[in-house]
């Protein structure tokens, strides 16, 4: 089982909608990969329908540099969890993770993501159906609660009683989004709950984890934590899973690599240009003229135009 093969204090790139697709995962692999990748979210009901299956399969594309990788899936229909779970092993995944923490209002309105915290019986049935229809290890990613921090006192034990292969806890509630600091003060209590209820479950912490240096500090302070998941930290430093302090030249080179990979992917499938704009600040920041350069990049319509702007800019 993949979770048993990972080193103590392992690292994971957090699943992020519109970010952690196969292209960006390949970019991070080049910069310095984590121990484990997750896909972006895939809706189980989309996969279960003929109309949505094509899009779902694109999200579940696995490339050689991804391995090992976990498929992250969401929804509220247990039967649909069963259908998708039964296909993931043949698609090349090492495990599947049920998202019960996404704060997106559209996902929550549909009953998925963090909304599952409010429907524990349904959450339990989804876990059961996924587990019964795959040989892969089943894990869950969640938040402390939906509205109140104290909800963790019932919600996390509820999940741990399912003896999951792994449990990732984002140290905020759905209501808090990312507007407040992660509740690191609760880590000792979460460790205690895991040790008492399901000591075999790998415990992963997510929220405000910056880079590998931060991971090492947290691992020294909380040695019983098995793994650490980095999300927004990758936007501040795409080399965050290494000890490297990238130069501007490193970042621009990585940006050009990202554009090359985008072109390759776009040649294979209909791949929208607009999401590329989410990544400009990853590479273009913290130097004189960065803001002006991003403005110029935002006006571009093609990757060739992006490259031309980069070629013409006078980097100091």
Structure description:
This protein is of the alpha/beta class and 316 residues long. The protein folds into two domains: 2-236, TIM Barrel; 248-312. The protein has 15 helices and nine strands. The protein has helices spanning 2-5, 22-32, 44-48, 50-59, 78-88, 105-109, 120-132, 152-160, 187-197, 212-221, 233-236, 248-268, 280-283, 290-298, 303-312; strands spanning 10-13, 36-38, 42-43, 69-74, 95-100, 138-143, 166-170, 202-206, 227-230. Strands 1-2-4-5-6-7-8-9 form an eight-stranded parallel barrel, surrounded by five helices. Helix 2 (22-32) packs antiparallel against helix 12 and helix 5 (78-88) packs parallel to helix 7 (120-132). 42% of the residues are buried. The mean pLDDT is 94.
Provide a brief overview of the structure.
The protein has 316 residues and is an alpha/beta fold. Helices cover 43% and strands 13% of the residues.
Element order: H for helix, E for strand: HEHEEHHEHEHHEHEHEHEHHHHH
Count the DSSP helices. 15
Strand order in space, largest sheet? 1-2-4-5-6-7-8-9
The shape is globular
Layout of helices and strands, plus pairs?
Layout: H1 2-5, E1 10-13, H2 22-32, E2 36-38, E3 42-43, H3 44-48, H4 50-59, E4 69-74, H5 78-88, E5 95-100, H6 105-109, H7 120-132, E6 138-143, H8 152-160, E7 166-170, H9 187-197, E8 202-206, H10 212-221, E9 227-230, H11 233-236, H12 248-268, H13 280-283, H14 290-298, H15 303-312
Parallel strand pairs: 1-2, 1-9, 2-4, 3-4, 4-5, 5-6, 6-7, 7-8, 8-9
